[in-house]
Design goal:
With about 375 residues, the protein is of the alpha/beta class. The chain has two domains: about 200 residues, Rossmann fold, CATH 3.40.50; about 120 residues, NAD(P)-binding Rossmann-like Domain (Rossmann fold, 3-Layer(aba) Sandwich), CATH 3.40.50. It contains eleven helices and 16 strands.
Length: about 375
Amino acid sequence: MVVDLGRQPASDHFPGITDPGPDPQWPLQVWHCPNCALVQLGPIAALDEEPVRAVESQTSRDHARRVVAAVLAERPWLAGGTVREFASHHGGSWLEALQEHGCRPEPGGPAALVIDVHALAHEENVRAALDQRVAVLAEGGLLILEFHHLLPLVEQAQFDTIRHGHWTYLSLTTVERLGAERGLTVVQAVAEPVFGGSLRLVLTHESSAHRMDESVRALLAAERRAGLHDGSGLERLQERARASAAALHSFLSEQRAAGRRVLGYGAPSKAAVLLGVADVGPHLLEFTVDAAPAKHGLAVPGVRVPIRPVQDLVAARPEVVLVLTWDIAEEVMSYLEDGGGWGTQYVLPVPTPHTVQPAAMQGAMR
C-alpha cells in the first residue's frame, strides 16, 4: 500500500440535499505491484454503478476531434478502415470523429484500429480487459490506449483523481510490461493535457512492421526518474496529498475570516475526494455549481456541499471562484468571463490553491 486517503464515499453517488446521512464510505487506498508496476485501488468489493449525470465538456469534444485528425494524418491508411472502440461511460468517445473520416465501426472484430478512451481505469481486472481488446485487434493493426497518466498524478499531487470506481492508475511502464505479455509492443507515446494530464499509447503486434518511436524511450526514462518503475516515487504521494488538502482547508478558512465569499464551480467525481480529505463542507464552501441539470438540487457526497445551477454563481458574483473542475479551467473561465465577468479571482485547488488568469486576460496584460 502506497496511499491511504481514509474512508471516502462513492464519488458519483450524489445524495439529495435533505437526504438523511451520513453517506456510505469505504477505504480508499492505492496499492503498487513490484512485478508489473501496476498501481490500483486496494481490495474492496465493487460498488454499485451510479447513473451518469455529468455532461461532456467542450474541451473533451474538441480533444476527440483533434486527436483523431492527428492519428489519421500520421497513419492515412487507417481512414476508411474498421474500428472498435471501448469508451468510458463518462464520455470522450472518438467514434463520431473517426466515422467522419470514413472509419467503419466493427462491433465484433477483428478491427484494424482498436481504441480504448479512458475506459481501462474503470476495469477492476485490467489484464482481462486488455485480453478483450487484443482479441478484436486484426493482425498488424493498432491498439490505441488513452488514460489519465500516473506521472502527472504523482508529480502534481493530483490526489483527487484517485476515487472509488477508478480501479487502475496506469503508466507507460505498466502498459509496456502488460503488453509484452500479450505479444504487443508500444511504438508511440504522446502526452496530452486533457483531464489534467493524459497519455496516448499506440501498440501493435511485435511481428508487425511498425517501428518504435523515440517518444517511448524518452517517457520510460522520465517515469524511471520519477520512480514509477519500482514504486519509490509513490512513497511521498501520501504526504503530498495530505499537505495539499491541508493547504486548501487553510486557504478557505483564511478567505472566510477575511470576509471574502468563495463559491465553487463544478461537481465532478473528483470533488468528493478533494473536499472530503480537506474537510471542506458548506461552512467553508457555501455551494458549488455545475452545468449538468441532473446534479442540481443534489450535494457532493460525504461533505454535502449543495450543487446549484451555474446561473446561481453568476448572480452571486463571489470574490473567489474555486474551480473544482480544474482540468477544464480555461473552458470554465472563458464561459464565466464571456460578457466581461465581474472581476472575480479564479483559484485551482491542486497541488495547492493558486490563482490563475483566463487566457483573454493574460493577453490583455501583455
